[in-house]
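Per reviewer request, we include the raw input and output of the structure prediction for the construct analysed in the revised manuscript.
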Amino acid sequence: MPAPAPQMIDPFGRAVSYLRVSVTDRCDFRCVYCMAEDMTFLPKREVLSLEELDRLCTAFIEKGVRKLRLTGGEPLVRKNIMSLIRSLGRHLESGLLEELTLTTNGSQLSKYAAELYEYGVRRINVSVDTLDAQKFKAITRWGDLAKVMDGIEAAKDAGLQIKINMVALKGVNEHEIIPMMEWCHANGHDLTLIETMPLGEIDGDRTDQYLPLSLVRATLADKFTLEDIPYKTGGPARYVEVKETGGRMGFITPMTHNFCESCNRVRVTCTGQLYMCLGQDDMADLRAPLRASEANELLNDAIDEAIGRKPKGHDFVIDRRTKQPAVSRHMSVTGG
């Protein structure tokens, strides 16, 4: 069955075909750039049920979403999450959905990797900021690197393609970028570097953490041959091929070089708030129309209205004067 034409066109002519859905704000890590250690999580009644999440995702797929990414918090800590993933897999079988994937910290992969593959997931992103076990514990506060490495191995054995996401943090892991790249490429994984983003109050100071990837790329180019390639996964990363390793490396640069002009993405929080831009506070409540009627007319109207005001770009800035985040909500609320 051929996929229907896209129905979600924003005011700037961009077709919205990529949806990222946070299935929970909870996580079993407390990464220093993402969360405060003493986080208060949402009451259950505010969080969409798995059935509501399925209905919401399906509505977007029927409107032209072709890539669906589940995020969190940590998506795999959500109770019975595999039943949602199994159910969403029907859209892969019908051909309406091209890709169902997720971003994870890897802590639960040993348990779920084989099932993920069975239900149609073929590619996952795993967040790993360092290969030093002690530093990993310091960055994640609660994480165990050995458990994550076992999970990555299980995912590889299950047939999943793995991309490692590494947030580049000045004075923390900047000297580990080359070893991480070499480890990734030796094991057949892509590596994507991400600039820290001003989202949510944290315990540290982001002006101290911020490492421009333009500098990182220049340093890498002194030692390696980086060739720009047109490879795309649907997200904002710009990729190079590293000639010496034969592997791919992506750069996500919301601060030094934003990627707004080609943005095809929207995000839904675990409470059903639709954010048309990660770097703006403007959002639309989809939970109310979802719960107000068993039919999807109200929901579809709310989605259409929101897409009609998707902004051209974000307002991210690392503010050294006020040290306030550009956006007050935490990344774990909107979904990574």
